[in-house]
Amino acid sequence: MGGQVSIQTSKGIANQSQTSLQEPKAVRWILICLALTFLALFLILPLITIFITAFQKGWQVYVAAITHPDALAAIKLTLIVVLITVPINAVFGVIAAWAITKFNFRGKNILITIIDLPFAVSPVIAGLIFILLFGAQGLFGEWLFYHDIKVVFALPGIILATLFVTFPFIAKELIPLMQAQGTAEEEASLTLGAGGFKTFYLVTLPNIKWGLLYGIILCNARAIGEFGAVSVVSGHIRGMTNTMPLHIEILYNEYQFSAAFAVASLMSILAIITLVVKNIIEWKASHA
Questions:
Q1: Regions of the chain with pLDDT less than 50
Q2: CA pair distance 177, 282, nearest whole angstrom
Q3: Residue 270, CA distances (Å) to 8, 63, 115, 125, 263 in order
Q4: Using the 8-state DSSP alphabet, how is residue 233 labeled?
Q5: Which residues of 97-130 are buried (b: 16+ CB within 10 A; e: fewer)?
Q6: CA–CA separation, 220 vs 87, rounded Å?
Q7: pLDDT in tens, 60-97
Q8: DSSP one-letter code for 200
Q9: C-alpha torsion 212→218→223→226, nearest 10
Q10: Cα distances (angstroms) measured from residue 149 to each of 154, 166, 237
Q11: Which of 271, 260, 210, 283 is nearest to 74 (CA)?
Q12: CA atoms within 13 A of residue 239's CA, in its CB half-sphere
């Protein structure tokens, strides 16, 4: 009898707490309308404007803008940078998260701080650092010139700059996930005789696969849209070192608005695809 009373009492307290957390209907509708208005003004409206301006002069102008040799070179360069930087960041992110969450060692806090560094440093400053290191007057500039190795104003510099600004995303996504999972399953696998690589492949990787994919999506999106660091190290050479954001900037500065927004629409499409894939991954992760 006493147990029933306590259960009913707890239910009554829970119902009261739920009721107290519910705002009046008018307040809820106002907050929802404010949020939707904000999204419409600062997200949906600019997106619509991009596509309207891109097609303002007709389909032929749009196709000519995105198939121009400089535009194709920018698209190709962007894809090359993404295909190189994202896998490298994926490997680094998994290794860093594994080391931080599964082992205790000296310098762990320093490693975590280094991973957070790109969030604290401006991308432009990061680009300047690479110029000071690998530029003609930089620390290694003379040696690179003597061996005919080009880093800045070439593909290697763009890759290095993109790597710097994107490498935290996968690691920062995996670290809290792996910390929450703990080490019990890995310890059990090792106790049963499995090696380190087999434990990682059969135990750890399946547990982090959705977080890893989510981090890869974020890293991919940042690599495609990176502007500041790449702008400093690229040299803005048409058809050679201009990524899509840099190509858009040049077209806009030359008052070729339709062409600029045409290329921008391609980036918007990639962003929408990224958002859809991100939501699918989040849904699958929540139902896994």
A1: 1-11, 13-14, 16-17, 19-20
A2: 14
A3: 53, 17, 26, 27, 11
A4: H
A5: bbebbeeeeeeeeeeeeebeebeeeebeebbebb
A6: 10
A7: 999 999 999 999 999 999 999 999 999 999 999 999 99
A8: I
A9: -150
A10: 10, 24, 18
A11: 260
A12: 4
Distance (Å, rounded) from C-alpha 208 to C-alpha 288? 11
Identity of the amino acid at 262: A
The tokens for 7 are 């259960």
Coil, helix or strand for 67? Answer: coil
DSSP secondary structure code for residue 225 in this structure:
H
What sign does the dihedral 240-242-248-254 (CA atoms) show? Answer: negative
For residue 139, count other CB atoms closer than 10 A to its CB: 11
H/E element, 86 = helix 69-102
Task: Give the three-state DSSP class for 146.
Answer: helix
Q: What is the DSSP letter of 204?
A: I
Q: Which amino acid, one-letter code, is at 109? A: N
Cα–Cα distance between 143 and 146 in angstroms, integer?
A: 5
